[in-house]
Queue: 2 jobs
Job 1
Amino acid sequence: MDAHLIEALGDELFHALQGRQPLAPLSERHPGIDLDDAYRISLRFLQRREQVGERVIGKKIGVTSRAVQEMLNVHQPDFGFLTDRMQVADGSAVSCTEHRLIQPRAEGEIAFILGEDLSGPGITAEDVLAATRWVLPCFEIVDSRIHDWRIRIQDTVADNASCGVFCLGTERIDPRELDLAAVELRMTLNGQPAGNGLGSAVQGHPCAAVAWLANTLGAFGIPFRKGEVILSGALAPLVPVGPGDEIGMSLSGIGQSSLRFVE
């Protein structure tokens, strides 16, 4: 794709976010789009967000578990950026209007806070564990600027890995004290069970998922920085949410998190 089209599509995604109006899939309108094109579009989308004051505070991997891949019909991980305006407080009310959510879905996952820089390629799961200061419970509210979640991998990468907002639980746990692959997630929606899963659901181990992300972004010259938040992917199928809903989660050995949704 030429630079003008890359810029135009990144601008389309930005305006879709601002106006809460989803787009027809990019991959249908431009069948030749590849992952490199999609990543360049996502950088333009991010640039527009930075121009209105947003600041990058971390990165995310998504579509890591088989359950989520089957749900979205996307069969490889995606990746994107987290900004300060995407973060909401644990236990808070999330306004779908204020946070510009269109078709949100909740996922429970393990978040990593880095204690030192990491720069791929060549990063291993062991490197990730050594570089991590804390792990935390996290709700990511994914949201697609693509109509009806009709996405291919190119669409979700261009759309900043379908990230809406995220919240971090208040607990801070040393990851070396746990078997992260054996951590169990339990989710609730309006007080009823809404899914469960294990840390091993993401690439076999959450640290392996984070290592994949470090190496993938490293190939584009994007390092992980000390203090950044890294989201490692959903441990269970996504749960659609909307105004009036309340979600909760627990991660064994790590902690709990909750959110409620308003118009």
Job 2
Amino acid sequence: MTQQQSPVWFITGCSTGFGKELAKLVLAQGWRAVVTARNPDQLRDLVSGYQESALGLALDVTDRHQIAEAVRQAEEKFGHIDVLVNNAGYGYLAAIEEGEDDQVRKMFETNFFGLVALTNAILPGMRKRRSGRIVNFSSIGGLTSFAATGYYHATKYAVEGLSESLSIELAPLGIKVLIVEPGPFRTDWAGRSLLESKTVIDDYDATAGQRRRQSRERSGKQQGDPARGAQAILEAVASDNPPLHLLLGKPALELAYKKLDALKKDFEQWRSVTLGADYPEFQDSH
């Protein structure tokens, strides 16, 4: 495969964590990559030595003009985009009652609406070629919830729902969607990138307060390796039939099964009440 035939990846949030590791892997494969971050200075080492195959761009996914310009430059340099990785995002710690409206809305703009805007900017080219891969970063927090991260979960549950519908709409067009659901990894999520509400209510100390403390204490000690996680994503994207859901790490797998068991328990315990909500003429068929 010549470099001109190699796949073109467009990756957001490449300054640290999964975005950085994915970009490194893609470029090491001899493939082409558009690597983006809000501060392009953080991309210099990443693209160094890859002048022909890498394009480093400033991109804040909440800025629609920057999105349009980044996609334009990417298509101008490489002609098209094969794989979009919506990785940019961050967390926010607050009990629901402690949440600050402006901070919550800003997080939604990045984690959800920015993902939507960039996806919609890149989809026309993928539809035209009837091929492509869209990798949307969710989290195990997009499948199950904890205290103090309710607003973050809300952004990731939104990504899950959107991505599942997107996968149905794009399947006949030859475009695959992959939802990545990492557990705890040694990225900046629980470190520099993590925001907290200034409001603290004592009544939530045993729930949200405890989770706040645990998040800070565990930062840098998580068992997930971002480089290995990036390799797993690469393998899934390159496969002929990638999964819709890709859990990363043992904690994510265990928590996902625990959520499935909890759902099934509720469904079965309340089965008769559930079925009794239908009109009587339909109940005999249950």
